[in-house]
Design brief:
By secondary structure, this protein is mostly helical. The protein has one domain. Helix 1 packs parallel to helix 6, helix 3 runs antiparallel to helix 8 and helix 8 packs across helix 10. It starts with a helix and ends with a helix.
Length: about 280
């Protein structure tokens, strides 16, 4: 019984440290929210006239604009950037010696992973939900591109809960990538050739329904189901299940299983490499 409070306290302390670090580095907010917001505005304006709505939008009472289609994709991009910025601190902690001190502390390796996931998830939720609340308002007032999305309290809570799953999934993936690395340059290289393409082929940027081999890449991408689930939660009316838009049950199951698997793999990696990292 004495170990449980100490593990919980360790998670809280490490999570609090990450949140304080975030508040002291406010430029991270600009990087995590500012760039996706610019993408949303520019691509929404540029591709508005040439966008063809996917088949799942046929049952809606209005025409889906590209800006409306891109909305959940931008929210996922904000979560992805937050996961990148929160897990890249692992490399900085190793270089400064803080990580070695954590590894020799009497806490479980899973506690180290959970603290990083908790901090990354909280930061991602705050920024992504803020965007989802103000995004349609900015579009309607400032850009003249309508987004017919109605947020109720229940639907917003459901979207927030699902965003927590996506944030945990991407933070765990970032942890798994960042842990064995010794340089931030290497992490940015992985981000460029793996994490960003992972977002691009998730159905966030384009539907990809009739894209040949790329369609199968999109279906095999676990982030596809996160974006699709969030897209379903944007509307009060149910959307048809199509090849471009999996069912909500499939979205939840794939996201939960992927998050749990990546979390356990991260804990295993910390345990396996802790001796080498301390040395």
């Amino acid at each position: 019984m004495t170990n449980k409070p100490s593990q919980f306290n360790a998670i809280v302390a490490l999570t609090k440290r990450e949140l304080i670090r975030f508040l002291r580095q406010r430029t991270r907010v600009i990087g995590a929210v500012g760039q996706p917001m610019i993408f949303w505005i520019l691509f929404g304006a540029g591709l508005h006239s040439s966008f063809k709505a996917p088949s799942w939008a046929d049952g809606l009472t209005h025409t889906v604009t590209y800006q409306e289609y891109f909305l959940p994709g931008v929210a996922a991009l904000i979560v992805l950037f937050t996961a990148i910025f929160s897990t890249i601190s692992i490399i900085e902690d190793r270089r400064e010696g803080f990580l070695q001190g954590v590894l020799v502390a009497p806490i479980s390796r899973l506690s180290i992973v959970l603290s990083k996931l908790a901090a990354g998830t909280l930061l991602a939720i705050f920024q992504a939900v803020l965007f989802l609340l103000i995004g349609p308002l900015i579009s309607a007032v400032g850009l003249g591109v309508p987004i017919e999305v109605t947020w109720s309290v229940t639907r917003m809570l459901m979207a927030t809960g699902f965003l927590m799953l996506i944030a945990g999934e991407l933070t765990a993936l970032g942890f798994l990538i960042a842990w064995p690395m010794n340089s931030t340059q290497g992490y940015h290289a992985v981000m460029s050739i793996f994490l960003m393409p992972m977002w691009l082929v998730s159905g966030a940027f384009f539907p990809g329904g009739d894209s040949g081999w790329l369609f199968w890449v999109i279906r095999a991408n676990p982030l596809t189901y996160g974006v699709a689930g969030l897209r379903r939660l944007l509307y009060d009316q149910p959307l048809a299940v199509t090849v471009e838009l999996p069912s909500m049950l499939a979205c939840v199951l794939v996201t939960v299983i992927t998050t749990a698997t990546l979390t356990l793999l991260s804990a295993w990696l910390v345990s396996w490499q802790s001796i080498h990292n301390v040395a």
